[in-house]
TrEMBL record:
Active site: H265
Family: Belongs to the class I-like SAM-binding methyltransferase superfamily. Cation-independent O-methyltransferase family.
GO molecular-function terms, A-Z: O-methyltransferase activity; protein dimerization activity
Domain O-methyltransferase C-terminal: 147-346
Alphabetized UniProt keyword annotations: Methyltransferase, S-adenosyl-L-methionine, Transferase
Record has Methyltransferase as a keyword: yes
Source organism superkingdom: Eukaryota
Name of the featured protein: O-methyltransferase domain-containing protein
Biological process according to GO: methylation
Record-linked Gene3D superfamilies: Vaccinia Virus protein VP39 (3.40.50.150), Winged helix-like DNA-binding domain superfamily/Winged helix DNA-binding domain (1.10.10.10)
Domain O-methyltransferase dimerisation: 20-105
One Pfam family named in its UniProt record: Methyltransf_2
Amino acid sequence: MEESKRNLLNEEAKASLDIWRYALGIADIAAAKCAIDLKIPEAIETHPSSQPVTLAELSSTISASPSHLRRIMRFLVHLGVFKEVPTEDGLTTGYTNTPLSRRMMITKRDGKSMAPLILFETNHEMLAPWLSLSSVVSSPVNGSHPPPFDAVHGKDVWALTKDNPCFGEMINEAMACNARRVVPRLAGACHDLFDGVATVVDVGGGTGEAMGILVKEFPWIKGFNFDLPHVIEVAQVLDGVENVGGDMFDSIPKCDAVFIKWVLHDWGDEDCIKILKNCKESNIGKVFIVESIIRDKKKTMMVEERDKKLEYVRLMLDIAMMAHTTTGKERTLKEWDFVLNEAGFARYEVRDIDDVHCVIIAYP
């Protein structure tokens, strides 16, 4: 009885602090965006001195208000984004980068930086729909209430991408930065599966970043970057990659293998099955699907801390799909099994790449 009472008091004490995260949690996102906008990580990384960068030096470098910058840096140091350490003479302190802050370098294209994705998700068009989640959740199944994104902007994300070139460029950059991060992991985990594969089509490949990386990893491959015509118009010209315009809901170019990353989660089961059927009909080999798989908790007794954090990101992605797409969602393995079977695939396997994403290899 006493132990139960103590546990309840501990839960109350924890709740009294945790509740503030829901009132002011936006501060984390806003401060990180501020650092990216002002290129603070780059200013620290490229400073001519090998010493920690003082507030005066940093404010001068990025032309910022010292008093406001001090408060932003104090907050980001508290979050562990930057470190504040004594200078060599011990008279003051300065700032240094961390592995986390380096992932906020907008000028880096090294496979680690997620700055383009952060800027995309924190722009006005993407933030506003989050505030309308309750309206779609309270709607009846197949109700008439439009999805949050459509309700705010009067059109879905794909229509806005087509009509607003600046927004389209942001989403292309966000997807490209994710490709630089994920595709090398896929290549390492699935190297054996590309033997004998001569042609690969990247469905929804955007600017061609993913296919460009893939043909470097497997130079014998001829790559096809396949996306809507208005996307292909601004795609990169890359060695070993041919850009092809079309619609994945109509047909997909013939090939030995299909690569499709972060596309199927944008669509509900009916559309997802249609896309997968077109993938199956287009190739004689296999389909590489790079997506998240939400864990079935009933089958998991012990969970490592890293796995908990990965699952948290996957669950956040699922809510993002609710806010930003009409029918999109992250899927459990059971839900992936359903759409793959309905699309007519004979079998599939899942390979872990130590990431938020997994690779599902589906065989016709």
